[in-house]
């Protein structure tokens, strides 16, 4: 959600049950613009909240020029002071997939997990150690990969190849806004290069350079609902707590994650 | 005389005008309209968006005759329903007649609760809560209710559920048509069974297996079925009453994990097969969540000391508000051990009930069956199941894989003077409670699933039981394996050896003679 008008946009996602207290909102509205000017971001977003057992992490995202590659994530425990998240290496990514359990709320906490590893055909046990800070960064990257979405046309690739906000985005028409195919993932396109040339012919290169969420596996992992006040809300069932919204015929859209930070791997049984 | 420049200009102009597409639009007109638009509107970053402006202009000229697209039908219907909620308040006659009775409505003060929940950072937006409030008012007007509470919201795939927990006024409750139908069906089944037994003539091997008798469900007003629940998909729509919950439904809902679709009639396809539709699954989850997460400050409720009637197994299930409640300070309420919060809903035993019932106990009507069963059945001694009694503090709740079952925090660290305590369940993500010195409330907003059901990281469906053996194995039907070649040879050798010995002995005897 945009850091500028947080107090307005927060009511769009609150139908999922989580909102911000007035104290948190004011703290964010004070600290986010400061974050933006300190780091010279073009835009700063309040990304969401990950609830740990003892404390919660508030996550903000700053964007420098390119909306896809210029993203930087910050976390805070009190909405006032922000810390840059560590870089996610492949090693951390692999470890974070194996470590399970709730976040504790303490960034220096170390997760230890015993993993069954086969080395040369002999099963043995290996202890994986992962710092909470690193796991947080990896989990957020995972959530963005799967869950960060925007309506089609909201972002364009300009002539220099930089992904920017589309100034001319008027909003999706109401009939399109209820179709899953009108929403795109905000990540480097994975499925798109594999499409045949015939399919690609119908796409507009300036807008359709991202994957539509319709093709997500498992099918049905997005719940699209219309709410009162013409709002369309999308909830991810893969990452429970991720809510995205769009108001048709306006340029208002956004997404936010308020959750435990755990992937719902049981989804095939639940649909 | 036209100058060279003017001649060139006219040439260029006519050239551009001649570049037409199929529908007769030419390039010259298009560019001139575009430039006029840019000069009029002065949009920012023109150079970057020039192509988009051009595209928009082309599209605009084609569609300018169309009416704006209509709102989806869905939206129109929702807002209509909502409007009916608001129409009651503007009636002049009704406004003058607000009597004392009306002011004592069982309607809860949801807006006050909404304020507190917002301080804690949970809950729905104030507008949504107001809509729910109006909707509850409608529910109260249509039903004679003693108590009414907004229990929470379930998020579903297509639609969501808003749940209200109510208690009818004494004697006003209607007999469910469903339950009467169920009883009728049971009697029919019994009659059919008796007919079937008489028709048997051949003595076939009798199947000794009997299904465990079903655990009877609890009566209304007791245990799991203490309150009645109503649900609706959107504020403004009709509230639907949920049926009472049976122990089988609770037992099986512990073994499955399904998302709610939002339609009460949706079937639940699962293993073990769930006895009922989404309506029953919803009711079972509501029962489990209530039992696990409805809490209040310690001492707020107490057992009624005057009441003598207790359940058979000694558990108390009736509580009243404590008139001598000592207000617990905020600091103590926020105590992280949880000693100052207690459960005020009974624990559900593994059986699926709150009060234990031995399923093998013979009922009063089963005299005929009793005689038969005494001959065949082996009496099993079952230990009665027990659980934590009512009004135990949450400090005694079991940990989940090493994580505390509850997170208790002060909502505001910076301004603790007017703050409140906020409790979050880690076992049922989505269950919250807040407490101040004067007030407390519980709410549930979530998908309706337990965290780590079955204590494993990922959900594992139950294993299908092994196929049952058709006949009991006994010597008359069991085949003996044919001996292998080695065994035959060994047996022959042994026999030959014996005969040899015997001959030897005989020879010896002969020799001796």
Can you describe this structure in just a few lines?
The complex is a heterodimer of chains A (271) and B (513). Chain A has helices at residues 6-13, 22-39, 90-98, 132-147, 174-177, 197-201, 267-270; strands at 43-51, 56-63, 71-76, 83-84, 110-119, 122-131, 149-151, 155-157, 163-165, 183-185, 222-227, 231-236, 242-246, 253-259.
How would you describe what is shown here?
The complex is a heterodimer of chains A (271) and B (513). Chain A is of the alpha+beta class and 271 residues long. Helices cover 24% and strands 30% of the residues of chain A. Chain A contains 7 helices and 14 strands. Chain A has helices spanning 6-13, 22-39, 90-98, 132-147, 174-177, 197-201, 267-270, and strands at 43-51, 56-63, 71-76, 83-84, 110-119, 122-131, 149-151, 155-157, 163-165, 183-185, 222-227, 231-236, 242-246, 253-259. In chain A, helix 3 (90-98) packs across helix 4 (132-147). Chain A starts with 5 loop residues before the first helix and ends with a helix. The relative contact order of chain A is 0.15. Chain B has 513 residues and is α+β, with helices and mostly antiparallel strands. In chain B, strands 4-3-2-1-12-11-10-9 form an 8-stranded mixed sheet, with helices on both faces. A two-stranded antiparallel ribbon of chain B has the order 5-8. In chain B, helix 2 (27-41) packs across helix 3 (46-63) and helix 7 runs antiparallel to helix 8 (126-142). The relative contact order of chain B is 0.09. The model of chain B is unreliable at 89-99, 177-199, 308-314 and 363-380 (pLDDT under 50). Chains A and B meet through helix 2 and strand 11 of A and helix 3, helix 4, helix 7 and helix 8 of B.
């Amino acid at each position: 959600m945009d850091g500028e008008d947080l107090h307005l946009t927060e009511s769009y996602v609150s139908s999922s049950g989580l909102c911000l207290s007035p104290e948190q909102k004011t703290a964010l509205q004070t600290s986010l613009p400061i974050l933006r000017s300190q780091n010279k971001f073009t835009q700063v977003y309040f990304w969401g909240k990950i609830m740990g057992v003892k404390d919660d992490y508030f996550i903000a995202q700053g964007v420098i020029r390119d909306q896809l590659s210029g993203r930087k994530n910050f976390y805070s425990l009190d909405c006032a002071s922000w810390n840059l998240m560590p870089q996610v290496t492949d090693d951390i990514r692999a470890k974070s997939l194996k470590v399970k359990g709730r976040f504790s709320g303490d960034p220096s906490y170390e997760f230890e997990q015993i993993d069954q590893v086969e080395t040369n055909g002999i099963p043995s046990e290996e202890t994986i150690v992962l710092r909470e800070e690193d796991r947080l960064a990896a989990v957020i990257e995972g959530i963005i990969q799967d869950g960060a979405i925007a309506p089609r046309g909201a972002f364009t690739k300009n002539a220099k190849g930089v992904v920017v906000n589309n100034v001319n985005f008027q909003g999706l028409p109401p009939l399109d806004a209820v179709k899953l195919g009108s929403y795109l993932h905000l990540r480097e396109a994975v499925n798109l290069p594999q499409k045949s040339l015939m399919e690609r012919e119908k796409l507009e290169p300036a807008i359709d350079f991202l994957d539509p969420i319709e093709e997500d596996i498992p099918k049905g992992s997005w719940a699209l609902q219309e709410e009162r006040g013409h709002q369309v809300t999308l909830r991810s069932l893969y990452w429970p707590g991720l809510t995205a919204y769009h108001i048709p015929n306006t340029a208002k859209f956004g997404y936010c994650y308020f959750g435990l930070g755990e992937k719902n791997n049981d989804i095939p049984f639940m649909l | 005389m036209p100058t060279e420049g003017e001649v060139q200009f006219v040439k260029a102009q006519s050239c551009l005008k001649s570049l037409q597409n199929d529908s007769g639009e030419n390039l010259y007109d298009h560019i001139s309209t575009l430039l006029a638009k840019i000069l009029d509107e002065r949009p920012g970053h023109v150079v970057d968006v020039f192509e988009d402006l051009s595209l928009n202009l082309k599209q605009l000229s084609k569609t300018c005759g169309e009416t704006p697209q209509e709102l989806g039908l869905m939206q129109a219907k929702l807002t209509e329903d909502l409007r009916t909620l608001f129409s009651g308040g503007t009636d002049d006659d009704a406004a003058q007649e607000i009597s004392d009775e009306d002011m004592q409505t069982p309607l809860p003060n949801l807006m006050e609760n909404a304020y507190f929940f917002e301080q804690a950072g949970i809950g729905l937006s104030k507008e949504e809560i107001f809509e729910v409030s109006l909707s509850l008012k409608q529910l109260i007007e249509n039903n004679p209710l003693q108590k009414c509470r907004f229990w929470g919201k379930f998020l579903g795939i297509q639609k969501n559920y808003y749940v209200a927990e109510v208690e009818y006024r004494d004697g006003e409750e209607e007999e469910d048509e469903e339950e009467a139908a169920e009883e009728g069906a049971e009697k029919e089944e019994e009659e059919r069974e008796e007919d079937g037994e008489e028709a048997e003539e051949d003595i076939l091997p009798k199947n000794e297996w009997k299904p465990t008798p079903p655990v009877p469900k609890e009566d209304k007003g007791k245990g799991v079925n203490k309150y009645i629940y109503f649900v609706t998909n959107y504020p403004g729509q009709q509230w639907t009453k949920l049926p009472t919950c049976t122990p089988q439904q609770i037992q099986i809902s512990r073994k499955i994990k399904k998302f709610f679709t939002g339609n009460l009639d949706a079937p639940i396809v699962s293993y073990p097969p769930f006895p009922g539709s989404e309506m029953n699954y919803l009711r079972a989850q509501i029962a489990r969540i209530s039992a696990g997460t409805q809490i209040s400050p310690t001492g707020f409720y107490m057992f009624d000391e005057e009441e003598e009637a207790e359940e058979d197994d000694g558990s108390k299930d009736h509580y009243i508000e404590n008139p001598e409640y000592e207000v617990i300070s905020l600091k103590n309420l926020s105590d992280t051990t949880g000693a100052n919060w207690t459960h005020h809903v009974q624990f559900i035993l593994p059986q699926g009930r709150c009060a234990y019932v031995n399923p093998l106990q013979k009922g009063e009507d089963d005299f005929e069956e009793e005689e038969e069963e005494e001959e065949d059945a082996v009496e099993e001694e079952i230990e009665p199941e027990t659980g934590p009694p009512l009004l135990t503090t949450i400090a005694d709740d079991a940990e989940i894989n090493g994580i505390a079952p509850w997170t208790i925090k002060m909502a505001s660290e910076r301004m603790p003077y007017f703050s409140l305590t906020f409790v979050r369940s880690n076992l049922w993500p989505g269950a919250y409670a807040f407490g101040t010195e004067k007030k407390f409330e519980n709410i549930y907003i979530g998908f309706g699933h337990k965290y780590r059901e079955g204590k494993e990281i990922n959900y594992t469906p139950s294993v299908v039981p092994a196929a049952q053996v058709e006949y009991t194995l006994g010597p008359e039907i069991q085949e003996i394996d044919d001996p292998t070649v080695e065994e035959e040879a060994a047996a022959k050798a042994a026999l030959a050896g014996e005969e040899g010995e015997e001959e030897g002995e005989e020879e010896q005897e002969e020799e001796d003679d």
